[in-house]
Specification:
seven-stranded mixed beta sheet; 41% helix; 7 strands; alpha/beta
Length: 254
């Protein structure tokens, strides 16, 4: 099931009113998703669907970030403003073609690449309609790592899936398995949850020391995983204090 752009926008606004500590970030994200939605809606009119179709949107993204982004992102925006079209195309390709892991890029530059590639990737994934076989640890469409896990109602429990960090493809994945290293021993797979967010869990792995957040839609059917994952940054502190690293940092590098 896809989570529409409008649902993400509305959820970001709702959570920004409830959680003061991340309100500014969520309001920025809300404006960013409005921008991404406009890119997504204009892509069907493009004659060619390669990365070059994204170049005309760079100025709009740079302008948005310089207006409402963090000082670090605004500085990166000013630097990108001086880059050539070829430089920008190479930046986009570094993410889309997995030439480098996003963690290897400066987080500010990775932000710009992902912010533009996400609507492009979602558009292509939507046209492909690919369904995964088995339980692959990476996206069956674009090969990216998952951003967040999702639990959906099934029978008396919940069925687990993973949500791609780039194209938002969702695919089934076994419950008690680490999506990073494949660990299956439940004694090595600790789970942490906070009272403030009883529907969000940190699912960690003691074997590879990674973690992924899981959004339980059986407990909160109004949650939008990519938004609620961003709104629960306080849960990251537990993971950091216990020496776990996130399987895939979100759009903002956290």
């Amino acid at each position: 099931m896809a989570f529409s752009w409008d649902c993400r926008i509305a959820r970001a606004g709702e959570l920004s009113e409830k959680h003061a500590t991340v309100s500014e970030l969520l309001k920025f994200y809300q404006q960013l998703v409005r921008f991404q939605k406009s890119v997504y809606e204009q892509l069907p009119s493009a004659q060619e669907h390669d990365l070059a179709v994204l170049l005309p949107y760079f100025p709009g993204l740079i302008s948005l970030v310089k207006t409402v982004g963090s000082p670090a992102l605004a500085q990166a925006a000013a630097e990108l403003e001086q880059d050539s079209p070829q430089d920008r195309l190479e930046l986009l390709a570094s993410i889309w073609q997995h030439q480098v892991d996003s963690s290897q890029l400066a987080s500010e530059y990775a932000f710009f690449a992902q912010a533009l590639v996400q609507p492009y990737a979602e558009f292509l994934a939507g046209r492909a309609g690919q369904v995964a076989e088995g339980s692959p640890p990476v996206c069956p469409f674009c090969g990216s790592k998952p951003q967040v896990a999702v639990l959906r109602p099934e029978g008396d429990g919940g069925k687990r899936s993973l949500l791609c960090s780039l194209c938002a493809t969702e695919w089934n994945f076994r419950r008690l398995v680490c999506p990073n290293c494949g660990e299956e021993n439940k004694d090595h797979l600790p789970v942490y949850a906070a009272n403030e967010f009883d529907y969000v869990r940190v699912e960690a792995c003691d074997t590879c020391r990674t973690y992924i957040k899981s959004i339980d839609l059986t407990k909160n059917g109004n949650a939008i995983p990519m938004v609620d994952e961003l709104a629960t940054l306080s849960l990251n502190l537990w993971a950091q204090e216990n020496n776990y690293r996130k399987l895939r940092p979100n759009l903002f590098g956290v």
